[in-house]
């Protein structure tokens, strides 16, 4: 079969001359589901600061903060997912950019035990569940989990969280 330049050019061209291209769907952003309050206690279920995610990020969008936890720069992240695949603890998730409220704890220990392991762990008190007007947040396996399909990003859960587990990406509702 011979190369046909005319067919190739037609296949590349938009279906209608002058028709606008479809807008691209915004790419997701990586979020580390850990606040890093464990310092020396050593939460076994949170970020361990191994920096594999930092090493695989092509855009230098991840760094390890002073608490030894990976932090993602939302502006630099392109949502490729390499960090998600490389995370040994599986605490990095890709979320849509419009979802700015995140529950940043992966600890499944009960409240009193979670407090001993981490200064910022979820204690499964349920204050976030009671505050959420859309029923988008639930305590599952002793930590808050957001149902993105129902979240309206109002931030009520973040304002009620006594341990600052639930955060707003921009620091408008609750500290970053």
Main beta sheet: 2 strands, antiparallel
Percent range of helical residues: 10-25%
Helices and strands: which structural class?
alpha+beta
Computed CA radius of gyration, to the nearest angstrom: 20 Å
Looking across the biggest beta sheet, what order are the strands in?
A: 1-4
* Unreliable parts: none
Mean pLDDT: 85
N/C terminus separation: 59 Å
* Basic shape: globular
Strand content: 15-25%
Total strands:
8
* SSE succession: HEHEEHEEHHEEHE
Question: What is the multimeric organization of the chains shown?
Answer: single chain
Number of helices: 6
Q: What can you see in these coordinates?
A:
The chain has 176 residues and is α+β, with helices and mostly antiparallel strands. The protein is built from six helices and eight strands, in the order αβαββαββααββαβ. β6 and β7 form a beta hairpin. The mean pLDDT is 85.
Condensed summary:
The protein has helices spanning 5-12, 52-56, 82-86, 111-117, 127-131, 156-160; strands at 29-32, 62-64, 70-72, 92-95, 101-103, 137-140, 143-146, 166-168. It is α+β, with helices and mostly antiparallel strands. A two-stranded antiparallel ribbon has the order 1-4.
């Amino acid at each position: 079969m011979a190369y046909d330049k005319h067919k190739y050019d037609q296949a590349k061209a938009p279906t209608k001359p002058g028709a606008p291209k479809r807008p691209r769907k915004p790419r997701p952003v990586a979020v580390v589901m850990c606040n890093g309050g464990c310092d020396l206690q050593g939460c076994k279920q949170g970020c361990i600061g191994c920096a594999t995610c930092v090493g695989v990020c092509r855009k230098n969008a991840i760094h390890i903060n002073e608490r030894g936890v990976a932090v993602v720069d939302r502006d630099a992240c392109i949502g490729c997912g390499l960090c998600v695949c490389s995370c040994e603890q599986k605490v990095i998730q890709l979320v849509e950019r419009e979802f700015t409220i995140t529950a940043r704890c992966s600890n499944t220990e009960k409240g009193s035990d979670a407090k001993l392991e981490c200064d910022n762990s979820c204690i499964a008190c349920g204050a976030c569940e009671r505050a959420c007007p859309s029923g988008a947040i639930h305590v599952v396996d002793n930590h808050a989990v957001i149902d993105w399909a129902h979240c309206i990003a109002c931030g009520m859960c973040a304002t009620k969280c006594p341990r600052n587990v639930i955060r707003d990406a921009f620091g408008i509702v609750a500290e970053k």
